[in-house]
Design a protein that fits this description.
about 45% strand
């Protein structure tokens, strides 16, 4: 009798972001589980400094076509430093780095992304938990943005806007989010090079922190990062809202 076995099933490969998030979640679980009853005794929340490393996720606009959402998902790594003025108010800073996600460069975005946020964290802190709101202005730097190039091959000091593929929508009866960051296909690409661009950013959101021991904590941040691109005015389409989340392991001292 011939035995038949089912064909082997291909295992779906997880993306780097998913693998990293799962690994970080496992570390979180181990940190919490490692807190023995002896270390779980009452302790005063008198730590002034917090230093942590984290996984960060950020959505950013990208060149798009009529059927896309005009945004990309970016995964990166970062570090955060916090100084506690009191159990209610802290100075909170964060630096993040996101690698090139492969999206085509435009005159506003492209390449590696570096983000810096510097502001305040405020909210109640107990022996075990902290529940905070964060308000942090800062910057977002794009490492490979399209720029006009003179004959010498170095960026020109200025050029007509028509020389650069624009992310600004063409005039339409009403604003279309799909076309918000669509690049023009009629501009002369041969005249373009690459440069860096830094834009103002403003992050606000909520954070929760759990401390299994006096000197170790896990922290989750969820918020919105508003990036102001060149030519922005309050309330215009040049202000782009971007979802941001980070998961951190924090050392307190």
């Amino acid at each position: 009798m011939r035995l038949q076995f089912p064909a082997p099933v291909k295992r779906a490969s997880l993306s780097f972001a998913a693998r990293f998030a799962l690994a970080l979640a496992a570390i979180f679980a181990l940190v919490i589980a490692a807190a023995s009853p002896a270390r779980a005794q009452n302790f005063a929340d008198d730590s002034k400094w917090e230093l942590g490393g984290h996984y960060a996720f950020l959505t950013l606009p990208s060149q798009c076509t009529g059927g896309s959402t005009c945004e990309t998902s970016n995964s990166g790594l970062g570090a955060n430093v916090t100084y506690n003025f009191s159990s209610w108010v802290s100075l909170d800073t964060e630096m993040d780095f996101f690698g090139d996600n492969g999206s085509a460069s435009t005159n506003l975005t492209g390449g590696n992304v570096t983000e810096g946020l510097f502001g305040l964290r405020f909210g109640p802190t107990t022996r075990r938990w902290g529940l905070y709101s964060v308000i942090r202005p800062g910057f977002v730097n794009f490492g490979r943005v399209l720029s006009p190039m003179p004959a010498s091959g170095t960026p020109a000091p200025s050029a007509p806007p028509a020389d650069i593929p624009s992310l600004v929508p063409t005039p339409a009866p009403r604003f279309s989010a799909v076309l918000n960051y669509q690049a023009s296909s009629t501009s002369p690409m041969a005249m373009l090079g690459f440069t860096r661009a830094t834009d103002f950013a403003f992050n606000y959101g909520e954070a929760i922190e759990y401390r299994p021991t006096k000197h170790v904590a896990v922290r989750l941040d969820i918020g919105d990062t508003i990036v102001s691109y060149p030519g922005a005015t309050l309330g215009s389409q040049y202000h782009q809202h971007n979802f941001q989340i980070s998961e951190a392991i924090v050392f307190r001292f």
